[in-house]
Amino acid sequence: MTPRWITPSIVAAALGVASALLLLNLATLVAGNHQPWLVVIDAVFDIAVLALVAVAFVRMGLRVDAESERMRMALDEATTRLGAIVETAMDPIITVDDAQRIVLFNEAAERAFGCARHEAIGALLERFIPARFRVAHHAHIEQFARTGLTTRRMGDQSPLWALRSDGSEFPIEASISKTGSGARHYFTVILRDVTRRKAFEDALRRQQDELRELSARVLEAREEEKTLIARELHDELGQLLTALKMDVAWLRDHLPNAAPETSSKVEQMNAVLDQTVGSVRRISADLRPLMLDDLGLADAASWLVEDFSRRSGIACSLELPQEAGLETLERGIATALYRGLQESLTNIGRHAQAKRARIVLRLDGGAVLLEVEDDGRGIDAEDIAKPRSLGLKGMRERALYLGGSLEVAREPGGGTRLRLRLPLGTAAEGTA
Ligand SMILES: Nc1ncnc2c1ncn2[C@@H]1O[C@H](COP(=O)(O)OP(=O)(O)O)[C@@H](O)[C@H]1O
Ligand SMILES: [Mg+2]
Questions:
Q1: Which of 27, 137, 190, 304 has its CA 20 to 30 A from that of 400?
Q2: Whole domain around residue 343: which residue ranges?
Q3: Nearest Cα residue to 335 out of 413, 208, 226
Q4: Torsion angle defined by CA atoms of residues 206, 208, 213 and 214, in that order, rounded to the nearest 10 degrees
Q5: Is 377 in the pocket of ligand 1 (CB under 6 A)?
Q6: Burial classification of residue 272, based on how many CB atoms lie within 10 Å of its CB (0-12 exposed, 13-18 middle, 19 or more buried)
Q7: Closest Cα to residue 248, out of 232, 282, 272?
Q8: Are residues 226 and 155 in the same domain?
Q9: Final residue of a domain: which of 193, 221, 239?
Q10: C-beta of 379 in contact with ligand 1 (< 6 A)
Q11: What pLDDT sits at residue 159?
């Protein structure tokens, strides 16, 4: 870059002086013998110009010196600042060279690994990696060096483990970056001890499992209670009502000459009794269709769909698998499917404003699948998350507990589609 003080006028002046000096020197060379005063003037000019040039060079040298001193100081300051940042960082920072020998080991690293810096510097990074991960780590660093990316998070898929000097291990999260150019490269790893976070995550997962187990047990208990009440209603109350109906019939037969009011009262009693029998049957079936236990899921589902269609006026179609299989389902799976179907139909009746519904129950590989589609207004993501709505959430919990899944979504052409998938044979034991 040209210095700022070199302007066209300065260059012109310098050229002018140089040409004048050249002319003067030529003149002295030609006529100096005869004109001694010319020699004197020439000598004075030469010396003056030489002195000027010398002064200029000295000043330029001084300026360059000052500039390089300033740059050195700035560099020192930046290095000190960077060093301080690395030292005071909360997270361990380790830099290694191409041979994976440690060249930087900050204070946080000393604390985390229980190793003094002078011991760490020059050691191989492997020293801080549990033996079983060393080969994988080596491959990772080499691949990283080849790909030429400058930064990368490590251990995104599975947690990484680090090794302390005392032989204990701790889980870490780390990112790596490559610096340097040409033949020399350095790799800097910034890592974080995630022992506490991992402990929290593990505790949270355990709690979730416990809650899921608990909710399954609650469902099981409810299901058992409902079955019991349904049986009592159906058997006990049913028998008593039948006996009562027979008594009323007997009364009607033995009151041939009764007053018309008495006869009509007996007829009314008979009608109320018929209604009561119907109500008891319906209530007990709502609680738990005993045919689910006695006849299996296919018959119970058919009855449920027909009953829903009749009561709601929504046209329903039900597809059942050709092959046998639904009768022998585990009780927990059959109940989950039945309750899923019951909740889906109730939702269609309450929320969908649908005209048609299509229900498919089929066996698919090692799983049983329930699909319920309607042509109504369609469900929204916020609907499913409604805090007070527990129908779909309960269904999902039950599915997860049984190792299955639930998908509920709006269909592209409108309406809602629910898919409940439950694996056969791997269900948790003892669920209703
Ligand atoms: N078939 C459907 N069509 C449209 N919206 C639905 C359907 N099923 C459920 N929803 C919406 O999803 C919400 C959550 O349903 P659910 O968990 O069963 O709770 P609840 O029926 O008690 O409201 C409902 O309030 C409703 O807004
Ligand atoms: Mg509901």
A1: 304
A2: 291-432
A3: 226
A4: 110
A5: yes
A6: exposed
A7: 272
A8: no
A9: 193
A10: yes
A11: 73
Ligand 1 centre from 196 Cα, in Å? 39
Instruction: Assess whether the C-beta atom of 415 lies below 6 angstroms from ligand 1.
Output: no
* 1, part of any domain: no
Same-domain pairing of 261 and 170? no
Confidence of residue 2 (pLDDT cuts 50, 70, 90): low
Atom of ligand 1 nearest to the CA of 377: 4
- Residue 404 has a pLDDT of 95
pTM: 0.63
% residues pLDDT > 70 (the chain): 95
Residue 278 and residue 296 share a domain: no
**The tokens of 369 are what?**
């699948």
Same structural domain, 319 and 413: yes
Token match 């080991």: residue? 105
Report CA(383)–ligand 1 centroid distance (Å). Answer: 6
CA–CA gap between residue 217 and residue 199 (Å, rounded):
27
CA quadruple 190, 195, 200, 206: dihedral sign? positive
Whether 351 is in the pocket of ligand 1, judged by its Cβ within 6 Å, is yes
Residues 129/163, Cβ–Cβ less than 8 Å: yes
Could you give the number of structural domains in the chain? 4
CATH number where 141 lies: 3.30.450.20
